Automatic annotation (TrEMBL):
Transmembrane residue ranges: none
Organism: Helicobacter anseris
Domain of life: Bacteria
Single GO biological process annotation from the record: DNA biosynthetic process
Name the UniProt record assigns to this protein: Thymidine kinase
EC number: 2.7.1.21
Length: 175
């Protein structure tokens, strides 16, 4: 089981799609699952919708996905893993234990810098964790590890910051 994580804008979904395309090119059975909670009208910002039509992309409310469905695939790609319910995470663990390759993409921390609960459930089963860094919205360095959201829970109204800019912004808001 592999986890692709990082802040918002770090390229998690893009890397997940790249890995799915590699599996697709080999003709290996796979599925991409994205939680129905994510209602954005794109998968990844830099992905052409016509590219997605060539892949086996499914948008599912996670409680609706049955084991029989998951058993059809050697590779299971899951985007926005932080939104999945514990029951679905257990299904992913069962598939991993039965030989499926599971590649997950999602946030590690919420906007309050608290670890998402899925990580505690899945961490014993993770073989690889890749932490991606976004471009800091302040200084433009490719070192953003903090995220600040403004507005709704699921939206594009957020900023990402490197350590130094996050510290500077935190000090400014306390004055």
């Amino acid at each position: 089981m592999e986890l692709l994580t990082g802040t918002m804008k770090a390229g998690k979904s893009t890397l997940l799609l790249q890995k799915a395309k590699e599996v697709n090119a080999k003709g290996i059975p796979f599925v991409i699952i994205k939680s129905s909670i994510d209602t954005r009208d794109y998968f990844a910002r830099n992905t052409d919708i016509s590219e997605l039509s060539k892949l086996n992309l499914g948008y599912f409310a996670d409680e609706k996905v049955e084991m029989e469905f998951l058993n059809r695939y050697e590779y299971i790609f899951v985007d926005e893993v932080q939104f999945l319910k514990p029951e679905f995470l257990e299904k992913l663990i069962a598939r991993k234990l039965n030989g499926a390759k599971i590649i997950l993409a999602g946030l590690l921390y919420d906007v309050n810098e608290k670890l998402w609960s899925y990580f505690e459930t899945l961490s014993p089963y993770l073989n690889t964790i890749t932490i991606l860094k976004a471009t800091c919205d302040c200084c433009k360095k490719q070192e953003a590890i903090f995220q600040k959201r403004f507005g709704a829970v699921i939206s594009d109204d957020y900023r990402v910051y490197c350590f130094d800019c996050n510290l500077k912004n935190s000090l400014l808001t306390k004055e």
